[in-house]
Automatic annotation (TrEMBL):
Signal sequence bounds: 1-20
Identification of the protein by name: Uncharacterized protein
Keywords: Signal
Source domain of life: Eukaryota
Length: 562
């Protein structure tokens, strides 16, 4: 190796009265400890131990200023990106990793025979798989992409939204909240034993929401369901508390390329990534579970080598991979005891697919496969006695009456019909099958007051150029039908003063659980704008003129019968 000592380095060395050896090609520091011991403080201590370079000497050679913060950052970067084996080094390029994790690429479906396709990962497996710390996949090529915004300031990559280099479906910063990752394979035919899945845990696959991995399947919205039994699928995963101590890069290697190298496992569940944080993976019944640790009684050694104005770092470790005590769900529940239920939506347990698929299609995709407890309500079967549909959209379609003076008068009469018998207005109820927020699937509007004068001001006689009647909105005149369909106004219509909202008929009768938050007065936006039980709830309003802009496109209004 050639040593280049520039004039600048020489003068820096002489200014600082350097030891003769600093600047030679050699190891200047060596840290031993647990996987988190590669850090600035330990680096400084290790410099002192070898005595090859002082702190000032080495940073002068590296062109790093005297600022302690900059020096620490320099060492932190070495520890994060240089000391561990980068995941990308196993296959060699970002593109190969990207396609592999998505379930494709030359390794998965290339034309060469298996030995040719796989020699590189076999080689890594045999030489380094258990003797080094591997970093979680991260790529320079992704940093701009993850942070990018379009011309309107919206993120190019909704799952990204931060300037890191994590790949699709594995972004630790923004979409890996459960700290659990999983790989699922459907093909075991390349391994040394022809039917390897027979000897490992296999699972039924329930379904995959395609929007959860749109960056790898290139589909914005959609779903796949896998009812009944398919061929066996092997899913394996891991969960962690501490990214560094728990060796999550090694675990990702163990769950992906290592299994491919040793057992020939390949190919993803259709529409899903082959590997990703569990939030991005298909819902399955169960998955195998793996752990990794530094072998008991051993330490990791981080070595810092200087050469040619550059400092590099490497590590040596004895890594043990092993099965967890139970499956991935059990391990998750043990490691994340404070949030143990969160895994249930992803690993539904033996025989859990059938119910999961029915729930999913009803709750998320709005199909009448089973009967959702909060959609397609029969108004007369859920408390109170209700009119026929007054006005509605979608599956509860009933167009608004275009004679606005007449329809307003009808609404007033219907509201007032309860006054003689109940000493209150009749309630108006909106049932919304397509609303995304459960609180907005059934809402009760109870007007406050005891006489018709407690309703908002009515039609005042104004007409437009064509002589058709118009409500003078600026004067507070309210078309009671339009108040709900398209123009949710605050004129004599203030929550807690003129009306209350409730989530059930029983609440509305007792006065319990009244909603506490409302806004109004956005032209073209109808009931209930962003009103919510305890705070704003967006996009669950209806609008007959801006049809399609909110989530309430399937809803209907009913009024209480006296
Ligand atoms: C609810 O029941 C009442 C009274 O029996 C009936 O008049 C009304 O049509 C029913 N409403 C619906 C939507 O079926």
């Amino acid at each position: 190796m050639k040593i280049v000592i520039t004039l600048a380095t020489l003068s820096a060395m002489s200014l600082r009265g350097a030891s003769a050896a600093c600047g030679d090609v050699k190891t200047i520091a060596s840290i031993t400890g647990d996987p988190s011991s590669c850090n600035y403080a330990n680096f400084l201590a290790a410099l002192g131990t070898t005595g090859e370079c002082t702190e000032d000497e080495i940073f002068a050679l590296l062109g790093v200023s005297e600022d302690a913060g900059e020096r620490e950052e320099y060492v932190d970067e070495l520890c994060a990106y240089d000391a561990p084996v980068q995941f990308v080094e196993i296959q060699g390029t970002y593109q190969l990793d990207r396609r592999y994790f998505a379930g494709g690429g030359p390794l998965v479906d290339g034309g060469d025979d298996w030995a040719t396709r796989s020699w590189k990962i076999q080689n890594f497996h045999n030489n380094m798989g258990d003797s080094t710390i591997i970093s979680w996949p991260e790529y320079l090529a992704r940093i701009d992409y993850n942070a990018g915004v379009d011309g309107n300031g919206n993120p190019l990559n909704p799952e990204g939204q931060s300037d890191n280099g994590y790949p699709a479906n594995m972004n630790l910063d923004v979409s890996c909240a459960l700290q659990t990752a999983m790989c699922c394979f459907v093909d075991d035919s390349n391994g040394p034993s022809p039917d390897d899945f027979a000897s490992v845990m296999t699972t039924d696959v329930c379904r995959h929401d395609l929007a959860n991995s749109r960056q790898s399947n290139h589909i914005n919205h959609g779903w796949s369901v896998f009812p009944g039994a398919e061929k066996p699928v092997h899913c394996t995963g891991f969960t962690w508390e501490d990214e560094t101590i728990d060796l999550i890069g090694n675990l990702m290697y163990d769950a992906s390329l290592s299994l491919t190298a040793t057992k020939g496992y390949l190919k993803a569940i259709p529409g899903a990534p082959m590997c990703g944080c569990v939030e991005h993976m298909p819902v399955v019944e169960k998955a195998a579970c793996r752990k990794a640790k530094v072998a008991d009684g051993t330490d990791v050694t981080f070595t810092f080598n200087y050469a040619d104005g550059d400092l590099s770092a490497e590590n040596e470790a004895s890594i043990v991979y092993e099965d967890c005590d139970g499956d991935l769900k059990a391990e998750y529940q043990a490691v994340h005891a404070d949030n143990a239920d969160a895994i249930d939506a992803h690993l539904v347990g033996d025989g859990g697919c059938e119910a999961d698929i029915v729930d999913y299609l009803n709750e998320e995709q709005f199909l009448h496969v089973g009967v959702s407890p909060t959609r397609y309500l029969d108004v007369n079967a859920t408390g109170g006695s209700w009119s026929d549909l007054l006005v509605g959209e979608g599956t509860r379609f009933m167009p608004p009456d275009l004679d606005i003076v007449k329809s307003d008068a009808e609404f007033r009469a219907m509201f007032a019909a309860c006054l003689p018998t109940k000493q209150r207005f009749c309630m108006l109820r909106r049932v919304c099958d397509s609303c995304t927020t459960p609180s907005h699937r059934d809402i009760y509007y109870q007007r406050i007051g005891t006489t018709v004068d407690d309703l908002p001001k009515g039609y005042g006689g104004a007409v437009d150029e064509e002589g058709d009647p118009i409500f003078d909105v600026d004067n507070g005149e309210t078309n009671l039908q339009e108040l709900f369909t398209d123009m949710w106004m605050s004129a004599e219509n203030i929550l807690g003063v003129n009306f209350n909202l409730y989530s059930s008929y029983a609440d509305a009768l007792s006065g319990d659980g009244a909603w506490t938050w409302c806004n109004y007065d956005h032209k073209g936006i109808g009931f209930p704008r962003d009103c919510g039980p305890t705070g704003p709830v967006h996009n669950n309003w209806n609008s007959y003129k801006k049809f399609g802009h909110g989530y309430a496109n399937y809803h209907g209004y009913y009024i209480e019968l006296p």
